[in-house]
Write a structure and sequence with these properties.
Shape: elongated
Distance between the termini: 35 Å
Oligomer: single chain
Number of helices: 2
Order of helices and strands: HEEEHEEEEE
Strand order of the largest sheet: 1-2-3-4-5-6-7-8
Largest sheet: 8 strands, antiparallel, barrel
Radius of gyration: 20 Å
Amino acid sequence: MRKFFIYIFLFLSTTAITAQINELGVFLGGSNYIGDVGPTDYISPNKVAFGFLYKWNKSTRHSYRLSYTYSKIESADRDSDVPSRYLRDKSFQNSIHDFTLGLEFNFFEFNLHDSEKAFTPYVSTGVSYFVYNEIFYLTKTEELDYRSSQIAIPMIVGLKTRLYRNFVLGAEVGIRYTFTDNLDGSNPKNNNLAPLRFGNLNSKDWYVFSGITLTYTFGQNPCFCAN
C-alpha cells in the first residue's frame, strides 16, 4: 500500500508540472488521540506532528491532495476527569506514519494567479493508510506486539491564504477515523491476548493532526476553463 501511494505521488508530480498549478510544502503542528485511555478531548495536541504535502490544483475550487505525516501519540488515564479511568492509571505511547490521498474543496474561488488577495475556508477527505504499533498491557504501560497497518477516513477543515507571490499559508485540523480499536492497547488483535482487552470494544480509535501548512506553487498558469 505504501508503494501505491509513492507511485501516485510520482505520477502526479511528473504529469501535473506541465498541466496545472502545483503546490509542494510542509505541515507542522501537533497530534492527539481519542479512544479508551486518557482524556476524551477531541482537539488537544500534546505531541509534535510534521509532514509533507503535494496539491494539484485542478481548478480554483478543488485540488487533488497527497500527504505524509508522522507523529507520536500518547495519553494517560491520570490526565482524565473520568474517575474510573483515573483510578485505572494506564498510559501508552504509539507512533503514526500517515499517508493520505484525497480531494480538497475551496468554499471561495482561490486563483493563485489573480493579483487580488486570495483567502478561503476549505474541506478535504479521501482515504488514509497508516502504520502503527500493535500494543498491549501487562502492567500499567504498553508492550509492543508487532508493527501493523490500517485504513482510516480523513476529515480535514482549514483556512488558507496566499502570501507573497508563490507561497500559500494554511491552518487546518485533520481528524482520522480509523478501523482499529488498538492504537491504545485496549483491544489487541492477537487472540492470545484476548484476556487483556478492556474498555469499549465496539468503538474505533481516532487520531487528530492540528497545525499549519506552508506550500510553494509552481507550474504553468492554468486556463481553468472548459475545453
